[in-house]
Amino acid sequence: MKTKAVSNPSMCSSCYFEEESTFHLFFRCSFAIKLWNWLFSLLNTFIQFNSVEDVWLLLKRNWSHQCKLVIKSCIINILNFIWHKRNQTRFQDKTLHWKSAINGIIAKTSIAGNKTTKADRCDMLEFSILKACKVNIKAPNAPSVKEVFWFPPLTSWIKVNTDGESIKNPVRAWHF
Amino acid sequence: MENPSKIQSELGIFRDSDGVFIGCFSQFLGSKDALHAELVAAMTTIEIASLKGFQNVWLESDSQLVNLTFKSNSVVPWCLRNKWQNCLVRLRNMRFVVSHIYREANACADSLANLGLSFPFFELFWSDIIPDLIRGEYIRNRLGMPNFRFNIF
């Protein structure tokens, strides 16, 4: 409607301050900023969101499988709670305090994190993230070690070991 | 299968029944995919073996696909089809066995790889003496010392 130049008043239901848009609601609104800051303090990092896709930058670091799943579920639950809170205020006239929202996020994340079969790595930051989300830490299994031998062939036979080997192109100049 | 940002080389080591080194080859292939390199390595082996008149040849590759290719030709890329058929003809005069070996046990061939990659020229490199690069792994193999494979679940 706005692109068709129909003017209608729009207001963000949680901060009553700015025009409501997807990006404002999920990333710029005061309620959303509190939830994201909680996640940033958990991950010990900070990202300036410029678009919705930027949330996946949080997963870019070298996380272990379990920790990655927990962070992913945190992000999705944060988005879910922001939407939930907006609907509650708009249609049922109830408010939701951000601290209780965080408790809800932790509860939902711990369900996801405990259900997974993926394993964690030994890392203090990851341990603290999992502890804060009330997720039990799943230690990885010990590797199974297998002895492998090279056997010579029978008499009068010749054995050939072949391999194809690759490396990333080291000679940059070839690209130009 | 396509990984064009990588450059490939093929290589092989010939050893007799006492584990004594006969020779090794390596060739720089440029920007090709991994299957291409493994197949060219198998074909070069067959060509060299038939040129040198080896009658009984046992090819060991760490690629399962190469083993499969000897059972059915359909995996061979079109650009290698012709060469592949020629190799199959050469194989008629040889006793030839293909088997799979774990990558870790193929360490000797693995360590030779750097040799092929360090010469970016496309002609085949053949050596009758053991390159220093593989001497350590060669001696390990010859003495029957194991390599270890780690599986993490």
Q: Any overview of this molecule?
A:
The complex is a heterodimer of chains A (176) and B (153). With 176 residues, chain A is mainly alpha-helical. Chain A has a domain at 22-132. Chain A is 43% helix and 9% strand. In chain A, α3 runs antiparallel to α4. The longest helix of chain A has 28 residues, at 65-92. Chain A is elongated, with a radius of gyration of 25 Å. The two termini of chain A are 49 Å apart. Mean pLDDT of chain A is 81; it is low at 170-176. Chain B is an alpha+beta fold and 153 residues long. Chain B has one domain (8-142): Nucleotidyltransferase, domain 5 (2-Layer Sandwich), CATH 3.30.420.10. Helix content of chain B is 42%, strand content 26%. Chain B has five helices and six strands, in the order ββαβααβαβαβ. Chain B has helices at residues 34-52, 64-71, 78-91, 107-118, 132-142; strands spanning 6-15, 21-30, 56-61, 95-100, 125-127, 147-151. Chain B has a three-stranded antiparallel β-sheet. In chain B, α1 (34-52) packs parallel to α3 (78-91) and α4 (107-118) packs antiparallel against α5. The longest helix of chain B is centred in the N-terminal third of the chain and has 19 residues, at 34-52. Chain B is globular and about 40 Å long. The chains are: A mainly alpha (176), B alpha+beta (153). β2 (158-168) of chain A pairs parallel with β3 (56-61) of chain B, so a sheet runs across the interface.
How does the SSE layout of this entry go?
The complex is a heterodimer of chains A (176) and B (153).
Chain A: H1 22-28, H2 30-43, H3 65-92, H4 98-115, H5 124-132, E1 144-148, E2 158-168
Helix pairs in contact in A: 1-2, 2-3, 3-4
Chain B: E1 6-15, E2 21-30, H1 34-52, E3 56-61, H2 64-71, H3 78-91, E4 95-100, H4 107-118, E5 125-127, H5 132-142, E6 147-151
Parallel strand pairs in B: 3-4
Antiparallel strand pairs in B: 1-2, 2-5
Helix pairs in contact in B: 1-3, 4-5
